[in-house]
Sequence to fold (374 residues):
Amino acid sequence: MTDLRPHHLDVRIGGISVRLRAASAEFNTLMVDRFRGFIGSVDTPDYIFDIDILPFTYTPDAPDELSDIEVSVRREDEGWHLLRGDFEARWDPATRHGTARLRANPYALDSVLRILHTVLLAEQGGMLMHASSVVLADGRAFVCTGVSGAGKTTISRLVPPGAHILTDEMSFIRREADGYYAYGTPFAGELATPGENIRAPLAGVFLLAQGPDNRIDDLSPAEAIRAVMTNILYFAKDKALTAKVFDNAIALAACIPVRRLTFFPDARVWDMIGNEA
Amino acid sequence: MSNPLYILHSSDVAARRIGDELMIMLARDSSLFSLNETAALLWQAADGKTPLDEIVAHTLCAQFDIDYDIALADATELAHSLAERGILLIAEHPFAH
Fold:
């Protein structure tokens, strides 16, 4: 029997491996570049997606206007249905198999993978968060979140020698038996560079604000939860899972210090974090 | 005299007590609200079958030293405000369970 999708790629983010099977070698090449550092062959992937590529001539200077249409993520029968202008995907958590029809722009598959991980992590007590994350030389990871323009990329650029940038855009946080861990992701922001594919115990979450000097302020429990919840990446219109996301934010804020970091954009901010956090 | 009002938790929210605050999250857009003490009492009493005037008389007036008519007017306004945000359902008849 002819294999309709002879090309496959195993993308492993946050310890979760997803095998992408496609007919197009060109698309695979595009994805290899998009997810560099996070590709490796595994014997048994956690999830398998069969990808059908819809015609689209992608160029970096001409974004796909269909990717601007609001995404819909809903439960459907036993699985999930994802729909945006440039993709439609389904997957069944029980069989760990999914299908996706998407236009041949790298953001379509990137978005499908982000959404997949938001749902998987929500069910496991973790989250994807609009945040940069950094591992200091002593091995502790810090996540820096905030609205667009708050300084997520800026603070990543200021990291001291020996530190590792996990991402400047989308932090991957998992709850494990001995606490929370931050993982590197290929989801890049202004740095336009994938994060390092490593993990480290999460030591703190900072809500960023830029100011004339460097200061760390405590937040009330409700403020901490609001800071986390506001910045979790989450799309599903699903009451049960949304409540779980809320509980995950509450659990994280109860376990990990969530504070406001006001910083002046120079490297001294990381000295303060290393000494005080 | 106006018809009695009945209030019920929206099925589209999750409520969690964090310290002294009651936080409400709307499932439709993940927006968060912190309810003050009065709103939290109203939320807790919103069983869909107790009229709002009884809630005011037995809960709010019992908890706070306030005039019943003023409390009822404030509670009615608050209930409508919470209903506009999708936190409570409001009706002139008891909700079926």
Observations:
- Residues 6-91 of chain B form a domain with the Outer Surface Protein A; domain 3 fold (CATH 3.90.930).
- The longest helix of chain B spans residues 68-84.
